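Example 316.
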Amino acid sequence: MGDTLYVVVPCYNEQEVLRETAKRLREKFRTLIAAEKISARSRIVFVNDGSKDATWDIIRELHGHDKIFSGINLSRNRGHQNALLAGLMTVKDCADMVISMDADLQDDIDAVDEMIARYADGFDIVYGVRSKRATDTFFKRFTAETFYKLMKFLGADTVYNHADYRLMSRRALEGLAQFGEVNLFLRGLVPLIGYPSTSVLYERAERFAGVSKYPLKKMLFFALQGITSLSVEPIRLITTVGVAMSTVSFAVILWTLYEYFFGDTVRGWASMLASLWFIGGLILLSIGIVGEYVGKIYLETKKRPRFIVSEFLNVP
Ligand code: UDP
Ligand code: MG
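Predicted structure in complex with uridine-5'-diphosphate:
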């Protein structure tokens, strides 16, 4: 008999897809258990992230028919990252390995077999990496790829084209549990845990039904969150720009003195106004970046709970 697998699925307003996802996962579990790749104690855990539709009712109904389906109901909507963490932290003591997966069937369920095989080879973390993004719109593909490049440039290293579809062993989860930060960016934290890791390629499908819960505004916020919670490179960049500006300003002073003594000083209104606005903008931007970090420190020092669970179905 194999090790115990828990699959954690965060769900926010997923009533259109949930039954289909549950059906396909159940089928996958049936074959895996029959092949003795995973134990019969394995479970599928849906985390309801404060959905406003019938998502939680569907989870209860699934649980009623088949105890392999478990549920965690959060007290309110906390966002994908926190919902996922709630699931991972709840199941980490009863699973040998945990796979996190989206509810919308964009993550290919068949990649699970290879993930488990890699786990059996001794890897603690197996990243699901998209082989191509053919099904995404050009806009989504472009923004996502810019995001990875920008992240790397700003010193926040993440696995390229990997979202939150991954397998983690129990000891990797115990490692993750030691990260106490409130500003969560899991795909940046997981590589910091260490332990042997590898990747599995899969093709990202289109959303099965329903709409994306990550509109542009949320995506931009998420990118900002990722960068500022993993690296202080932007603040260093400000310092570099500051040094460059000072050097330039020294040259400007020399030029001004020259013009004062030998030229016509009334000219230069345009350059004056341009640099005034430019430097003003730069200062505001820099204060904004520093402020972002200060705000983050503020939120971290409060140590507010990252999630609150209102109900468990069949999970300890
Ligand atoms: N999700 C969540 N809480 C939220 C937003 C999203 O738990 O506040 C879940 C959602 O149900 C899905 C996963 O996070 O299972 C990814 O969301 P989505 O598919 O909308 O994002 P996309 O794939 O478009 O980036
Ligand atoms: Mg999706």
